[in-house]
Amino acid sequence: MNTSLRLSPRGVDHYENFPVASWLCPARLRPAVAAIYGFARTADDIADEGTDSASQRMADLSTFGADLDACYAGRPDSGRWPCVFIPLRGAVRDFSLPQRPLADLLSAFEQDVAKSAAGAGYANRAELLDYCGRSANPVGRLLLHLYGISDSAALERSDAVCTALQLVNFWQDVGLDVVRGRYYLPAEDLQRHGLDPARPSTWAVHREAPKLIAEFAHWTRSLMDSGAPIVHQVPGRAGWELRLVVQGGLRTLDRIEEMGFNTFAARPALGLADFPAMLWRSLRM
Q1: How far apart are the first and last CA of the chain?
Q2: Which of 143, 195, 150 is nearest to 174 (CA)?
Q3: What is 121-285's CATH topology?
């Protein structure tokens, strides 16, 4: 997610919820932020772009993971992605970036490939949160690492915000995702509202569908609110960028509510007209 008011499933270019090395980021951190973004963006491309088979995607992600191990072990890598691993080696050297969050991101991309190939969804919210914990939360933790923030309260708040942003994307794009064969609505919740998890083509016209999205939106708003105090722990201009990111997510939830929670029919989007409200709410934080 960037600061351009585009809360899309692919953020800037296409990677979810990623604060890019903008003018709000201190100059000394920009190369490291760009290196993290490049890693995530490229791995996401391998998992999601082009026409490769699922088996080829998994093989490429395996090689990508081996190159990550080589990066941290100081060994030569495959040489396939120099634009990723040369900058990343510099970030690891200069900022002692932990490997685990990057490996978690990679495992989430592998899960995307496996689930898409199988046409599978998530059984319950716990499974979905586990996925968000590897696909979104590592980014926040890596950025906190760059700012030297490591206390447990900050990490929990960062996780809440990152997960909430990812969930916003899911509820915002639910109609598009169903068409693409991606299912993020937990089966347990679908069944509770009378929707058949095995028949995604029927979800959009089910009378309970808006109520289901409303329930998810309220849950996500609570999660975002619980993590919002993290903005007071991130220093300087980055803290203001984070305020706008949080308010962008909340504003998108407002848009979802305004359209009667029927995101199966249309995708809510933010524009320049939303910026004054987001800025005012950011100031009030």
Answers
A1: 19
A2: 195
A3: Farnesyl Diphosphate Synthase (1.10.600)
